Amino acid sequence: MSTPSAGRLRTVVCGTNFGRFYIDAVRAHPGFDLAGILTTGSRYSQEMAARLGVPCYTSVDELPADVDAACVVVPSAVMGGGGSELGRALLERGVHVLQEHPVHPDELAASLRSARANKRQYRVNTHYPHVEPVRRFIEAAGELRRRQQVLFVDAASPVHVLAPMVDILARALGGVRPWRLGDPASVADEVRAAAGGVVPVHSLHGVIAGIPLTLRVQNQLHPGDRDNHALFWHRITIGTQGGVLTLADTHGPVLWNPRLHSPRDAGHRLIFEAGPGAEALRLPTSSVLGDPDEIQPSFEEVFSRLWPSAVAAALTSFAEAIAAESDPLRTAQHDLAVFGIWRDLMARLGPPELIRPPTPTPLAVEDLRVVGAGTQGPITTRPRGTTAENGTPEPDGAPGSGYSESAEFFDLGARDHTSRTGPAVVAALGVIDRHAGPLFDIGAGTGLVTRQIARALPGCQLIATEPAAGMRAVLTSRIADDPELASRVTVLPHAAHELVLPERISGAVACGVLGHLDAAARRALLRSIAARLAPGAPLVVELMGFHTPISMPRTRLRHAMLGGLRYEWWMAGEPSGADRMRLDTTWRVFDGEELIRESHDHYHWYPVDLPRIAEESGLILESVPSPHDKAVPHLGLLRGAEQPCVTT
């Protein structure tokens, strides 16, 4: 166990995701001692605490009385977590709190009032203003403001780090008032159509610190991986009469571009050579602020050096506030203003678009050099939506991406179908070895089949994955309604191509999901499942009846009555490449004969048959036992060559 050092703040870190940076910073900081980790008690956190020689607590009540401070690195309520509530519980225990951004202004005000009432310090860490290149930019901006008037600001940020962007601007410009924001500019229909319907960046204009502002925001989020799909990070340009100061990226470099101004001679001709009155022509067109020999950091160095250093700077400021015993409400006016603007921005932008793009391929600078400039070959371009290797289409999104609009109607269309296929899936699973690991239901939808499987296999641990939030909400409610199922069915938001499977599983079900993946992604998933199946364990697959891309005329698939309304489910399809189809679904809602609602969705489907699935997985395709008189079409049972060893 670690031993406390005199004069240091005994500190617990809450959270072990981004909290890992705080843990490392607390351990390295001369003013702090790591007194423990406060988490939900996962195995990962317990093992980390044991490795560091500190306790792993699971509630505030477990903390010893000698804890001085806490770093709350848990999402706040505005991000769907309990970070702010946890922070206030710690303040009421007499613990100083440093909380990771973002925080809603109402949460911030409540925490500040609690800090004042309990005579403790509370600070929000927006992190990025402490990152070394950003600090350099803020300092240079301050010097620039002392010399010349700022004429404009141009900024860009992904939405998930928009609050730190506002903080960076406030520090660089010496405050935020007066400020005013306009609404995002609308995108013309023809522009949106030309861009394939995808417009990731939204622009708005406003004023901050009395300076005209143009702000561009990538208002998109991957719901299960918000940190990994930003097209860019913080970018800021501050313009004056004498030149332009630019933060090219959160992680640098910081650039200075002096104003291009060539005086004229007596004949009113431009002077092109430096000399008396034209000394500015000797200035370089662009300069990097900082050590000219410093190499731009790699992303690995961002994680190993820049971010830990930024957290250490935040800890130093936190310790100084604790030592000064200042009034937290009086010293937080800057934060209140920053998060007030952030709230206004988020309201104007509206909810982020949920995206599930394929894994990106970062390019190196060498990829951009052309023949004659020191490379081995020309730059090649490829059509939008294709892979670099072979020009074949990439997945249009994660499985479930085409169910965002129609999730509320799904059960109306699927209930009859799953009443037939569900028993067949259960029969195909047979008796599994529940001690071999969990059973995975991949792309579980609203749980119509999941519930049948769980009830047929008492004592079996199930993991049901579903990326579409609307579908997952119904799935979660369906499982939660049955206390026995709720004790052993875990619901995860992961898409099929994102799954990280345990070393051993007792079986897997993939109904109506494999066609969402292209051949490479599908093969990777199937091979991963096959490698982890217990000996003889089943993989049950349900496909659509498409073996090749075809044209499918608009067809009514289902109709249902709900109260006084009639619901109709229509589908149409067209080939959209050599190996995929675009499927368009429409739900129409009628009150009598009057159409009162219409909901549209689309997704891409890669037609595949069961023999191909067997080939890609390396498993053996077996006949499916059916509880009905007729076999269920497009349902397959696959197993490894080894025979099962089952227990009941």
What does this 3D model show about the protein?
This protein is an alpha/beta fold. Among the domains are: 9-125, Rossmann fold; 401-546 and 608-639, Rossmann fold (3-Layer(aba) Sandwich); 552-605, N-terminal domain of TfIIb. An eight-stranded mixed β-sheet has the order 8-9-10-7-12-13-14-15, with helices on one face. Helix 3 (83-92) packs parallel to helix 4, helix 5 (132-147) packs parallel to helix 6 (162-173) and helix 11 runs parallel beside helix 12. Mean pLDDT is 89; it is low at 371-401 and 643-648.
Core attributes:
648 residues; alpha/beta; Rossmann fold; N-terminal domain of TfIIb; eight-stranded mixed sheet; 29% helix
Reconstruct the topology from this structure.
Elements: E1 9-14, H1 19-28, E2 32-38, H2 43-52, E3 56-57, E4 69-72, H3 83-92, E5 96-100, H4 105-117, E6 122-125, H5 132-147, E7 150-158, H6 162-173, E8 180-181, H7 189-194, E9 201-208, E10 211-218, E11 220-221, E12 235-240, E13 243-247, E14 254-258, E15 287-288, H8 299-324, H9 328-331, H10 333-349, E16 353-354, H11 410-429, E17 439-442, H12 448-456, E18 462-465, H13 469-480, H14 483-486, E19 489-492, E20 507-511, H15 519-532, E21 539-542, E22 552-562, E23 565-575, E24 581-591, E25 594-605, H16 610-617, E26 620-622, E27 635-639
Parallel strand pairs: 1-2, 1-4, 2-3, 4-5, 5-6, 7-10, 11-16, 17-18, 17-20, 18-19, 20-21
Antiparallel strand pairs: 7-12, 8-9, 9-10, 12-13, 13-14, 14-15, 21-27, 22-23, 23-24, 24-25, 26-27
Helix pairs in contact: 1-8, 3-4, 5-6, 6-10, 11-12
Protein name: Thiazolinyl imide reductase
GO molecular function, one term: nucleotide binding
Organism: Actinoalloteichus hymeniacidonis
